[in-house]
C-alpha cells in the first residue's frame, strides 16, 4: 500500500468519526467546554496480570462516559478510532514510518488523553495526561492512587474525571461533583467492565469471546450505545460466513472455520467452568406421593403382598435457571452468530460440521447437558416404626443452553426424569398396620435430614396438587369484545350473573395429570410443568372425578358407558353433572370467559383487555407467533388481574358446555345446552394466531377429539 495514500485514507476516515455529545445539562454551567474535542485512549498497563489485561480499557470506558455525561466537549468515536489504531499497529507500516505518524493529528481532535495504570502491592497508581495535539503541550494532568475496590466500582476513575474536567475549563455543578464522588450503578459498572473485556478480547483476536462480552454489556445497560454498536458490527461479520473464506482453497477455508469453532468451544468451556462455580448448585425438590395401594394379588402361601403405587419425581428449580439466564444470554447470542456463519458458508455438511455445536469438534463440550443424578432410598414404615419395605431408585435432572436459539428466545432448558413408581414387594401381612408411612431414608448415601440441611435437595410430600384462585361473583357481558385489538363481538351479547367460584391458577400440568391418572398423553414432554395436552373431553372429566376422590371431595360427574372400559384415551361415555357436589369440575363457558376477562367489571382496578390480562398478546399468551411450535411451562407469561395464568394461549381449555348459539336474554349460572355434538374449548393455543387467543373467542370440537393443543383447567365451589 502507498504510505502517503494510507495516511490520507486513515485521516479521511477519522476526520468524519468525531461525534458531538453536547447538550444542555444540569451538570455544568457555561458552555461546558463546547467547541473542544478530545480523543481518549486506554492508558498503558504495567505489572498487570493476564486476567487484568482489560483494566486499561475499563478506565478508558469510564473516562469516556464521564466526559460525555459531564461536559459539552466532542468525543472521538472510539469504534472507528480503535479500528484505525489497530491498523496502525498491525505491521503495515515500518517502525520509522510509524514513528513519524501522529495519531493526534489523524484523530483531528484538539486534545488527546493518554496515561498509564500500574499495579502496586496495595492497588494501582493512575497517571493521566491531556495533551494539545497541535503543539504537544500539556493541558491537564492527574496522578493518584486507586484501591482495588475503587477500581472495581470505578470511583477511582471518577475521582480522576472530577480533577481533569475543571482543568479543561468545565465548570461542574454541585450535582455533578456529588455524582462523580459516588459509584455508578452495579449494572453500569458491569456494562463498562464487560465491554472492556470485549475490547481486549477483540484486540487479542478472540472475536467470539469479544462478541459475548459485548452482548453482556448491552444486556447490563441497554443505553450503552457503544456496546450495542460493537456487538451489532461483530455479529454481522461473524454470521456472514465469510470468515477466512478462500474460494480457491476449500480445504483452507474449512481449516479456518475449524479454528473458529475450536476458539468458540474452548472459550465457552472455560467461561462455563468459571461462571457456574460462582453459582450455588441448582436446587432440586424431590416430590413423592403418600397414597399407598395394593398391587396385584395377595400371596396366600407366603402371606405377603405388594404395596405401593407411590410416585416420586425430582423437580429442578426454574427460579435458579431464571436467575442464571441473564449472563448466559450473551453466550447463546454469540454461539448463534457462529452457528449462523457456519450455515452461511453452505459447506458445513460437506465439511462434516453439520452436528455443531451440540456435538463439539474437540475435547470440550460446553453446550452439552449438565446432569445430576440422585440415588434415593424409600422406606415403608408401619405404626410400630418398623421398616416393612425398602426400595432404591435413581432419579436425576439436567440443564443445557440450547443453540440454535429456540423460537421463544433465550432460556436455560432444565429437565428432570419422569415420575417414577415405587412398589414394595413381599410385605408380610403381619407387619401391615392401619397406618403406614412413606419416608425418604437417604439421598446419595446421606440421611435425608442431612441432605436437606446441606442443600443437596429439598424433600416434600406431594400435597395441594391444584393451586386455586378465588373468583368473586358478579355480572358481565358475555360475547362482548374488549380492548384495542378490534375483534368482533360474539352475538347475541347478553348479561350473565355468576356465583363466586375457585379456578385453577394454571392449566393442569403433565406432572399433575400423571399423579392422578398414571399416564402422560402429551406430545411435548420436555418439561412436566408444561400443560398436559392431547386429552379428550372425557379424559378431562374423569380426571376431575379421580382428583376429587383422592382429596376426599364429592365427585361432580357420573360417568357410564365408558369406551374403552379401562385405559385411555376415553372416546365415548355418558356424563351427567350434579352441580351441588363440592368436587372438581370443568368450568362452564360463562365461568371461563368471566375469569379470563378478569371477573366483575365493577370491581376496583378492572380493565377491559382484549386478551386475558393485556391488550398485547405477547405479554400474556403463547401463540403461533412466539411459541416456537410447542407448549411452554405454565406461569411464564403475565397473569390477569385475578392471578390466573395462561388463559390466553399455550393450550385450548375444555369447558363443560355443549356448543350452541348464545341466548338473547340474561342468565344466572348458565351451564349450556342440554345436548349437542361439540364441546366448547376456549383460549386459543400455541398454534393459533394472536387474534384467536382473545378472551371472547369461541371454539368447539367433538368430545372424543384430542390434539397437542388441547388441555384443561379446573374449578370447584
Helix content: 25-40%
Overall pLDDT score = 84
Total strands: 31
Number of helices: 18
Report the principal-axis shape: globular
Distance between the termini: 84 Å
- How much of the sequence is in beta strands? 15-25%
Main sheet attributes: strand count, strand direction, barrel closure: 7 strands, mixed
Overall number of domains = 3
Superfamily (CATH H level) name of the largest domain: paralog of FGE (formylglycine-generating enzyme)
Q: What is the top-level CATH class of the largest domain?
A: Alpha Beta
Task: Compute the CA-based radius of gyration.
Answer: 33 Å
CATH fold description of the largest domain? paralog of FGE (formylglycine-generating enzyme)
Q: Can you put this structure into words, describing what you see?
A:
By secondary structure, this protein is α+β, with helices and mostly antiparallel strands. It folds into three domains: 3-184, TolB, N-terminal domain (Rossmann fold, 3-Layer(aba) Sandwich); 284-323 and 369-461, no CATH class; 468-485 and 496-716, paralog of FGE (formylglycine-generating enzyme) (Alpha-Beta Complex), CATH 3.90.1580. The protein is built from 18 helices and 31 strands. Strands 1, 3, 4, 5, 6, 7 and 8 form a seven-stranded mixed sheet that branches. Strands 10, 11, 12, 16 and 19 form a five-stranded mixed sheet that branches. Strand 6 (111-119) and strand 7 form a beta hairpin. The longest helix has 28 residues, at 250-277. The protein is globular, with a radius of gyration of 33 Å.
